[in-house]
Specification:
The chain is an alpha/beta fold and about 290 residues long. It is built from eleven helices and eight strands. The protein binds acetoacetyl-coenzyme A.
Length: about 290
């Protein structure tokens, strides 16, 4: 089994940036692609900040930090991806956008050794793989969690077309990146969001129905169930628009209206209260 030496990440957002960072920390060269140069600059800045902080805390030597930063490159040129031997797509959760990318990836990476992974949190791997003509057996789900450098899991999802060899190699690479890989089959939401999102949705129902105020709902789940964050705080952390979107994917994919987003969750999204990223969701986040 040949070792992966260069991992390409498509999308320089929070997830893509985190995936590139953990790859670099595992001594794998990372190339971050994004069509928007501003997104690349932000990603580069965040890498430097997080890695410098690890040095300050004594978790990383300066020379290791410099080597890690030097092994990440940032580009808006698709041609610069050519040398990669593994790709992880981490762009917006939009099937049409992902399909266009996987069509292009299959045309660019014709070697049977190059795995084309997606970090989708709920979209069908089988569906995305249909766009990778001739390479659908190399398409796999590699679902990281936010914040990627901290969270220990990679959910590995096989589409109907994914080969066993590709799943095995995805498990091996995830472990090399310091994560625990756990396998799930390709049903809407896989395991993580099939269970997490209805719980978050239920917290919105509990708030909407006046069962308790948000602080009490979160406090009860933190102190009573040992959650690091209450479900409403976690919704703000993930993004209320993302939570509502995933609930709709579950409702469509599992053929059941019981998964539709809670009306209060939908209303907050309509009002632009998207969570931490917009400064207000369930709770308020003053600009730092
Ligand atoms: N990026 C990188 N590192 C971060 C970070 C970020 N955004 N936020 C926090 N950290 C690091 C801190 O630097 C700190 O590192 P050290 O231990 O090395 O010092 C560590 O995380 C702990 O941070 P804090 O002490 O500041 O805060 P905390 O103890 O409250 O932990 C937390 C913060 C790790 C985010 C914790 O609250 C937590 O685990 N929350 C739940 C997160 C979760 O459930 N994520 C999954 C979301 S769902 C998802 O991603 C999938 C999906 O499909 C929607």
């Amino acid at each position: 089994m040949s070792e992966v030496s260069t991992l390409a990440v498509i999308g320089a957002g929070q997830m893509g940036g985190g995936i590139a960072q953990v790859a670099a920390q595992a001594r794998i060269n990372a190339v971050v692609f994004d069509a928007a140069p501003a997104a690349l600059d932000k990603c580069r800045g965040l890498h430097k900040k997080l890695i410098d902080r690890a040095v300050e805390k004594g978790k990383l030597s300066r020379s290791d930090a410099d080597a890690t930063l030097a092994s990440i490159t940032y580009t808006s040129r698709w041609e610069d991806l050519a040398g990669a031997d593994w790709v992880v797509e981490a762009v917006v959760e939009d099937l049409a956008v992902k399909k266009a990318i996987f069509k292009r990836l299959a045309e660019t990476f014709t070697s049977d050794r190059v795995v084309l992974a997606t970090n989708t949190s709920s979209i069908s791997i089988t569906d995305i793989a249909t766009a990778a003509a001739g390479a659908s057996h190399r398409v796999v789900g590699m679902h990281f969690f936010y914040p990627v450098p901290v969270m220990g899991l990679v959910e590995v999802i096989n589409g109907l077309q994914t080969s066993k060899d590709v799943v095995d190699r995805t498990v091996a690479l995830s472990a090399r990146m310091g994560k625990t890989p756990l396998k799930a089959n390709d049903r809407a939401g896989f395991v993580s969001n099939r269970i997490l999102m209805p719980m978050i949705n239920e917290a919105f129902y509990a708030w909407m129905e006046g069962v308790a105020e948000p602080e009490a709902i979160d406090g009860i789940m933190k102190l009573g169930c040992n959650f690091p964050m209450g479900p409403l705080r976690l919704a703000d952390f993930i993004g209320l628009d993302t939570c509502a979107h995933i609930m709709n994917v579950l409702a469509d994919g599992l053929n059941s209206e019981r998964y539709r987003p809670c009306p209060l969750l939908r209303q907050l999204v309509t009002a632009g209260r998207l969570g931490e990223k917009s400064g207000r969701g369930v709770f308020e986040y003053p600009a730092k």
